[in-house]
Amino acid sequence: MDRGPHRLARAEAVQGHLARIEALPAAHREAAKAFHRYVLQSGAVSDGETLVAMLTDLVDLWERAAADGTTVQAVVGEDPVEYIESFVRAYAARHWLDKERTRLVETIERVVQEES
Q1: What is the pLDDT of residues 86-106, one digit of tens each?
Q2: What is the CA radius of gyration of the chain?
């Protein structure tokens, strides 16, 4: 299966998110950039479609907060890490660690079977 078009579409979506983030007021822009980067760097979600949906929702949230005059503190509360981790957990997708857990279990099962 050629995944090239899907990757290109995801890359274009991420670029669109970044352009929308740049249009935010300074405080909201910096917070949105930080959360966007955290989600991408953490490898929290391995499914591309879910990742794009999550990042779209994240940008939507910051745009609404800016439009409503909601402060960054009011959005994220006291613990920004807990905030974004809860945000990510709200998306029922396979996470990167899920794949690694499966790989670990399958490897051990195979090795045990071979030892028998």
Answers
A1: 998 888 665 666 777 888 889
A2: 18
In terms of Cα–Cα distance, which of 55, 61, 65, 38 is closest to 93? 55
Spell out the residues 6+ positions from residue 97 whose beta carbon is closer than 8 angstroms to its own. none
Which stretch of DSSP H or E encloses residue 58? Answer: helix 48-68
Flag whether the pTM goes above 0.90: no
Cβ contacts of residue 53 below 8 Å, gap of 6+?
91
27 C-beta neighbours (distance < 10 Å), count: 14
Characterize 32-61 residue by residue with b for buried, 16 or more Cβ atoms within 10 angstroms of its Cβ, and e for exposed: beebbebbeeeebbebbebbbebbeebbeb
